[in-house]
Design brief:
The chain is built from 8 helices and 7 strands, in the order ααβαβαββαβααβαβ. It has a 7-stranded mixed β-sheet. The chain is an alpha/beta fold and 245 residues long.
Length: 245
């Protein structure tokens, strides 16, 4: 398991994650297990996970559960899709079916509210972000990570045709494969940009924004988030970390 002391956002890590990402569709356990381990290392730089209560918004079938529990956290997952929750054969303990834009948790309930690659799948992503902050206790961390629309995987399985428009890419995929893509533009996939995330972070008043960075890029490429247009193309996934006041 990676720890803060061993986690390094270097080029080797980026190459390893992107190699695993190639297997997201055919071997999701391989990719999501690798991403979960990487997340523990990254998160350990912001808080001590041992003894923390974690809510994973959009946690799906639970690939992250083992990683968080090995780190000593009490883990809760929420997802709106029962099919996703049962992806590993059964719905795991500590799992809640609910809406990320209306979280069924009280205010200040968890130490870490975590979301990985979910904001682009909800119609009102920043309403979900606000809900994540609401349920995070003062001093706790909200960690938001989402796939950027104009990045290479913005259209998910319809990429790279999403660059010509989400609806066109969706129609092309359906015609080519004889069925709709899993991530349907306008229904379960939406256009969320780096600019959107920076705008939300700038107006944030519920806490201190302590990081805005490209999740999979090496540290030496973090400056790219400050370059308009270019940042949209080379940021595969954006992370926003807020410490609640």
């Amino acid at each position: 398991m990676l720890s803060a002391g061993h986690w390094r956002p270097d080029l080797r890590r980026s190459v390893r994650l992107l190699a695993d990402f190639r297997h997201e569709q055919d071997d999701p356990r391989r990719f999501y297990s690798a991403l979960a381990a990487d997340s523990i290392g990254q998160l350990s730089g912001y808080l001590d996970l041992a003894g923390s209560t974690v809510l994973d918004v959009g946690g799906g079938p639970g690939y992250f559960r083992d990683a968080f529990e090995r780190a000593g956290a009490t883990y809760w997952a929420l997802d709106a899709d029962v099919g996703e929750l049962a992806g590993l054969g059964s719905i795991a303990r500590g799992t809640v079916v609910g809406d990320g834009m209306n979280l069924p948790f009280r205010d200040d309930a968890v130490d870490l509210c975590y979301s990985s690659n979910v904001l682009e799948h909800v119609a009102r992503p920043w309403a979900m972000a606000e809900e994540m902050l609401r349920v995070t206790r003062p001093g706790g961390i909200a960690f938001l990570s989402y796939t950027v629309w104009y990045g290479p995987w913005g259209g998910h399985e319809t990429a790279p045709w999403h660059y010509l428009g989400g609806r066109l890419a969706r129609r092309r995929y359906t015609a080519r494969h004889g069925h709709e893509p899993k991530n349907r533009y306008g229904e379960s996939l939406f256009r969320v940009t780096v600019r959107d995330g920076l705008r939300w972070a700038r107006r944030q008043q519920a806490g201190e924004v302590i990081a805005v960075l490209p999740r999979y890029n090496p540290r030496w490429a973090y400056w790219l988030t400050h370059v308009p247009v270019l940042r949209e193309l080379v940021t595969w996934n954006l992370v926003i970390v807020v410490r609640k006041a």
